[in-house]
Hints:
The chain is of the alpha+beta class. The chain has 3 domains: 13-205, no CATH class; 224-294, Up-down Bundle (Single alpha-helices involved in coiled-coils or other helix-helix interfaces); 298-429, 2-Layer Sandwich (Heat Shock Protein 90), CATH 3.30.565.10. Helix content is 65%, strand content 9%.
Amino acid sequence: MTTQTASPAAETPPRVTPPLRIFLTVLHLAALGSLGGIILGILAGFFGAGVGLLFALGIGALFLVGFVYAVYGIGWFEVVRVRSLYDLDIPDLQARQRRTPGFGGWIRSLGRQSIDGSMWRAVANFAIACIFGSLVIRLFWGLVWSAIFAFTPLFSTEDTAGPFGTTMSAAWAPVVGFLGVLAAAAGIIGFALVHRVITRSLVVPSREAELTERVRTTSAQREGAVRAADVERSRIERDLHDGVQPRLVSVGMTLGLAQQKIDNDPATAKALINEAHTSTKAAITELRQLARGIHASVLDDRGLDAALSALASRSHIPVNLDVRMDGASTGAHAGCRDAEAAVYFVIAESLTNAAKHSRASETRVVVRQREGGVLWARVEDNGIGGAQVQPGGGLDGISNRVLAAGGTIRIESPQGGPTSVEVSVPCAS
Length: 429
């Protein structure tokens, strides 16, 4: 057996040297100085049109919505730009997800997006970079002018126009030009260095902010786990009380009657025993279904793809299943197993609801493994819609299960259909 050892160059990517980073920063600032003013002007125009037309015609709301999305786009671009420029360990700017379905849920998510502090800090950094960029462009032309001015004695020996409207002897032109080149170059480099400092203070989250966000996320996941456990316990109690328990009581009563008649009326006793046997098999089936709703053992044995295939085969309505995942990485550790379990139960509940309530004739299930090990799934049926998240209901249970796993879920079910459930769950490290 041979062992391969990766070379150091393959383990660590080449680092950008400080001079090259300063040069790249200057190029970034120059580009933003040239185009940033136009972008910020368009952004201000959207905001002004939105405010001005909001009460006049009511269409100003469309401009304000466009303004929020444009601000988010600029913030996302700025985060990606500074992360690649300075090799910063900062995540992508995330859009606020809907917590409730429908138009109201979208409006609330838009409101949360409009007050997202990380987005506005990124936009502020973009605006500062644009201002610095315009100053860098002016300093660059000052550097070019100073370099040309330094060679004035080669063309003329008479007095010449100097900087700031002054007149000086051509003999002093080299000194003034040299000092101008130094001053302009120092200003350009200074703006590049200050831009890095400002970027680190604005875009990179502080340690306190990271800890606060981590605590908030952990608290939300814990609340989701507790709520999911409560909903699951209530469901189990309800299924046992309304299904299995009465059936077992009926089996006991039937066997009691058969015992009384076994001597005097053997034929009736035999029929009662057969009835009890049928009811017992039905109770076993219900218990199996109940256990499957608690834990899908096929996930551990064969993986998510096989578990979903089995789930689709048991569905009462046709299921178009499209699963594309990297089997080598999913389920490799507990984090992925938890993510797969959350996605599985979301799909199972969605298919159950489609069969019971939606009057759908077809469902489509799409599952993908996205970058970073995130499991994404979407379930859509062609039913009548109108599904709502009720406290203690099935949709409430899967929503809390996804939240406990650190994922997001979006449910859309307008009246008339279709109903769609979209979920993203990351594999925990």
